[in-house]
Amino acid sequence: MKNFTYFRPSTTAEAVGLLENKWGPVELLAGGTDLLDLQKEYVAQPDKVVSLGGIRELAAIQVEPGHIVIGAGAKLAAIAAHPELKQKFPALTTAAGDVGGPQIRNMGTLGGNLCQRNRCWYFRDEHTPCLLKGGDKCFALEGENRYHAIFTQGCPCVIVNPSTLAPGLIALGAIAVVLGPNGERSIALDKFFQAPARAVDREHVLAANEVVTSVRIPTSAVKNASYEVRHKQSYDWPLVQAAVAFKLEGGKASDVKIVLGHVAPTPRVAIEAAQVLEGKEISEETATAAGKKAAQGAKPLKQNGYKTRLVEVAVKRALLTAAGQKRYWEV
Prior knowledge:
By secondary structure, this protein is an alpha+beta fold. 27% of the residues lie in helices and 21% in strands. It has helices at 12-18, 35-40, 76-81, 83-88, 90-98, 102-105, 110-115, 121-124, 166-171, 271-277, 284-295, 306-322, and strands at residues 5-7, 26-29, 48-51, 61-64, 67-71, 175-180, 183-188, 211-218, 223-229, 240-249, 252-261, 268-269. The protein has a five-stranded antiparallel sheet with strand order 4-5-8-6-7, covered by helices on one side. Strand 11 (252-261) and strand 12 form a beta hairpin. Helix 10 (271-277) packs antiparallel against helix 11 (284-295) and helix 11 runs antiparallel to helix 12 (306-322). The protein starts with a strand and ends in a 9-residue tail after the last helix.
């Protein structure tokens, strides 16, 4: 690991003041579950590491009229266990409770989960000059790509976005509050992510001198759920994830949102799949139809065609779970 200077500010304004206007020289440290790995592999080689652990207000979860505000420093374990969040936003708390193992959940944070770097093994190998490290080739296109994207149109880099909290937050209409040298701004979570293609890009739209301070979720009465398909139950990233949210009035769904995770370089909002359900009951038949529509347009790589079927299943099961129907697949 390259030597660095460590800073531990007590306010977000102090933290922002320590950042620079380009990526690389400075890295933010929250739980450290991503950054330390990157440093050990010499993928990240900062001169300065700015810890956010001393900023108490970043860890707060506040229930306010019309919305709930979750600080970017809130631990995943705290999010998963919060009674108000569990009642209103199971799509979020289920995802938070499934991240890694207990050690990861008690160290990892909301902001870190949203802003973490991708998990592509070519990117994480210090000896591989991929696109995101200044090279001219995405090695996953013709290499080992069984966990990579199946929706890759227009994306020279075929990573999947690694955040498991993002799909649920997007489905719930969440907004990220960001602080930078020019003050505070808000970014809708469905506009927060981007598909990186160069070393100067990140998996999100933040500037290098900005910090996520909180996420605001409106408390409208929506049914919601998240469903992940995995190899194993713990300490693993999903192969495919689906998060859904909708209003249910008179047994009919409206304002339907379906968001896919781990299938594209950014969380994928499945607009046409959601339209399948507008004004209809959530049933085995309609949920299956929405799942099939969500999988349309996929262009799998040579090793990950199986993900197309998993999208169909994840969407169907997330919808049925949100609608309160029997989870027959767990019997």
